[in-house]
Structures are given as structure tokens and as C-alpha cells.
Amino acid sequence: MKWGLWAHVFWYVVANVAQVIVWWLVTPDIFFWPLWSILGWGIGLIAHIWAVRVALRPRTA
Questions:
Q1: Model pLDDT for residues 12-59, shown as the tens digit of each residue
Q2: Measured between alpha carbons, how far is 43 from 16 in angstroms, rounded to an integer?
Q3: What are the b/e assignments for 5-37, b being 16+ CB within 10 Å?
Q4: Given CB 3.0 to 4.6 Å as the disulfide criterion, which of 34, 46, 49, 55 pairs with 19?
Q5: Which pLDDT does position 21 carry in this prediction?
Q6: Torsion, Cα of 19, 7, 42, 24 (10° steps)
Q7: What are phi and psi of 30, to 5 degrees?
Q8: CA–CA separation, 42 vs 17, rounded Å?
Q9: How far lies 45's CA from each of 25, 34, 52, in Å?
Q10: Domain spans of the chain, in order of start
Q11: Which DSSP string corresponds to 19-50?
């Protein structure tokens, strides 16, 4: 579970940094369009983090 989360975080950072670099090199004077990917994928990443934390939480009876 944790490896899947770390892979998700790694690819989130790599993909979004790449998009920001492309934006900066090609269209810096236009709206910051990587924002939509950062926010949308970020919501999914937060849900993934939450799910892993809940699954790994010790159960008390």
C-alpha cells in the first residue's frame, strides 16, 4: 500500500513539474493552465493518502 502511494506521489510531482516547465517555456504569458492538472490530480492524491492512512490505522475494539 505504501509503495503504491509513494509511486503516486512521485509521478504526481514529475508530471506536474514537467507541465509547469512546458508552460514556462512555451506559454508563460498565458493563463497558468497546469493549475487544472495540479488541482484535479491533487484531489485524487489526497484521497489516496487518506485511504492508506485509514487502512493502516490500528484497529481498536
A1: 999 999 999 999 999 999 999 999 999 999 999 999 999 999 988 887
A2: 14
A3: beebeeebeeebeebbeebeeeeeeeeeebeee
A4: 34
A5: 98
A6: -10
A7: -105, 165
A8: 13
A9: 27, 16, 11
A10: 2-56
A11: HHHHHHHH-TTS--THHHHHHHHHHHHHHHHH
Q: Per DSSP, which regions of 1-61 are E strands?
A: none
- Tell me which amino acid residue 44 is: G
All three cell numbers of 28: 508563460
Block residue for cell numbers 489516496: 48
Name the residue with higher pLDDT: 3 or 44.
44
Angle between helices 34-56 and 2-26 (to 10 degrees): 170
Q: Is 45 helix (H, G, I), strand (E, B) or coil?
A: helix
Higher pLDDT, 9 or 56: 9
